[in-house]
Amino acid sequence: MTPRVLAIVLAGGEGKRLMPLTADRAKPAVPFGGIYRLIDFVLSNLTNGNYLRIVVLTQYKSHSLDRHISRTWRLSAMLGNYVAPVPAQQRLGPRWFAGSADALFQNLNLIYDEMPEHVLVFGADHIYRMDPRQMVQQHAESGADVTVAAIRQPISLADQFGVIETDPSGRKIVAFREKPKNAVGLPDAPDQVYASMGNYVFRTQALIDALREDALDPTSKHDVGGNIIPMMVKSGGAEVYDFADNVVPGSTERDRGYWRDVGTLDAFYEAHMDLISAHPVFNLYNERWPIYTGHDPLPPAKFVHNDGDRVGRALDSLVSPGVIISGGLALRSILSPRVVLHSHSVVEDSVLMDNVKVGRGAMIRRAIIDKNVVVPDGARIGFDPEHDRARFAVTHEGVVVIGKNEVIER
Ligand code: ADQ
């Protein structure tokens, strides 16, 4: 028999480093890859793995996230399945969650309601495919209090992750340091660390006990990575699940092991660029492990030439339903639903979100443009760094980012 499992997705993060994309939506609701939202990836992994009782803990600017979940993620209620967004309910007084462990603590009733054998606690803002059953199986066989999914990452990124040290067997966690400033590399690869992916499987009682103990500690930040996992490491019950061992049905040598934390605008941009090569390292076309999302009933993308010599074209690009390329050109770009490129416009190496309109002769290079922005005729974006910095956000790597509904002067 498969064990009873409750999955909890932590979706309350603010995503400050993704501003302006998170100005009025929670990070897990940020659009990705034309037709998806970040949260679709974790929810697809869980549902493809047949974990069909899922609560999503939200708090910060959760309106568009709630709407997306309730429109898209409707599982069969008749079989007792659900994806339920649960907003911060201030059960324990008039305050928001202090940290992710506090969010879990305040929702312990959801765990008592289900009384599962294991509780999956997964983050909501990563791009990856993972079969969670393989992790749960290792966890159940080992009898650990918690099993933490881990992946090797460059040591330069150590201060963004929970960094894990294991005993010589490679399984038992002997140290877990949340976002350390001076991490030490792995014995076999000094330029790498073993990073927590922010996905955990807990033995239910061990999680309840740890959350209760943490809630009583006035010095705690009530954070899963910062407090709960280190507490379980101390008591000797924490193990690691190596993501390199995960084999997703339908995956290939090429896209196996792909995982991206899109916590910064540059990482968000790079993960998009990973989608568009002829043989992408992240393959959206694996039908044995689909990434689910919601669709408006839009017409197919249309390519027309209406200006004599100008043919509407797209190359090395993802083009969503409802797009019209009318005498414009898209190169190495992601066009979300309802984007329109007018004659003589050129969009290169860019991510255009829902309903962006690009005027006649406008040129866009290395940009992320959020929903509903109208790019005026003849505008230049991504060509003059100084002019761009004066008007828009520009990332460390020089990607121009224009927020939702922003009005662009010519
Ligand atoms: P971070 O992502 O920096 O590191 P955090 O900001 O706590 O940690 O976010 C983790 C998840 O919890 C995200 O999905 C976020 O949306 C959500 N979240 C945060 N606060 C919440 C709250 N109060 N209520 C509900 N949800 C909340 C974490 C781990 C690291 C690990 C990285 C991997 O702490 O150890 O290496 O993820 O990216």
Automatic annotation (TrEMBL):
Homotetramer. This is Glucose-1-phosphate adenylyltransferase. Transmembrane segments: none annotated. It comes from Thermostaphylospora chromogena. The keyword Metal-binding does not apply. Belongs to the bacterial/plant glucose-1-phosphate adenylyltransferase family. Residues 7-275 form the Nucleotidyl transferase domain. Keywords: ATP-binding, Carbohydrate metabolism, Glycogen biosynthesis, Glycogen metabolism, Nucleotide-binding, Nucleotidyltransferase, Transferase. It is an enzyme of class 2 (transferase). The keyword ATP-binding applies. Pfam families: Hexapep_GlmU (PF24894), NTP_transferase (PF00483). CDD domains: ADP_Glucose_PP (cd02508), LbH_G1P_AT_C (cd04651). The gene is glgC. Alpha-D-glucose 1-phosphate binds at G162, E178, K179, S196. The record marks Q59, W96 as: Could play a key role in the communication between the regulatory and the substrate sites. It comes from the Bacteria.
